[in-house]
């Protein structure tokens, strides 16, 4: 069964926008806590609370990733879902970049 153009246009905007918002919040939380954890660890402070916040941000980002993939699979607002997927994959790209930079010889 194919969808008409009016069915595609009336697809809800909330899921992809929610995925984008969650991806931005999760990624921002992860980046901020990562920097603060390094600062506290080098200063000899405790990092348990920030570590919990880091994993909370990772969980929020994972939820955004799932919502974006569901939006792509269902085919509604596919463009916005791909943008949300890109936002949600930013931490994965940063981890890969950090791993490559850590193993690079100077």
Q: Your description of this structure?
A:
This protein is mainly alpha-helical and 106 residues long. The protein has one domain (14-100). It contains 5 helices and no strands. The protein has helices spanning 5-9, 14-43, 48-74, 78-88, 90-103. Helix 2 runs parallel beside helix 4 (78-88). The longest helix has 30 residues, at 14-43. It is elongated.
Tag the structure with descriptive keywords.
106 residues; mainly alpha
Tell how many strands the DSSP assignment holds: 0
Fraction of residues in helices?
A: over 70%
Structural class by sheet pairing and helices: mainly alpha
Assembly type of the chains comes to: single chain
Terminal Cα span: 58 Å
Query: So what's the overall shape?
Result: elongated
Number of domains: 1
Quick synopsis:
By secondary structure, the chain is mostly helical.
Question: Mind sketching the topology for me?
Answer:
Blueprint: H1 5-9, H2 14-43, H3 48-74, H4 78-88, H5 90-103
Helix pairs in contact: 2-3, 2-4, 3-4
């Amino acid at each position: 069964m194919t969808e008409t153009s009016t069915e595609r246009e009336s697809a809800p905007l909330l899921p992809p926008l929610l995925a984008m918002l969650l991806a931005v919040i999760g990624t921002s939380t992860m980046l901020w806590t990562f920097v603060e954890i390094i600062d506290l660890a080098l200063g000899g402070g405790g990092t348990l609370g920030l570590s919990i916040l880091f994993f909370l941000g990772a969980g929020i980002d994972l939820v955004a990733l799932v919502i974006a993939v569901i939006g792509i699979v269902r085919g509604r607002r596919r463009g916005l879902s791909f943008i949300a997927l890109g936002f949600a994959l930013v931490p994965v790209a940063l981890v890969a970049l950090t791993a490559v930079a850590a193993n690079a010889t100077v």
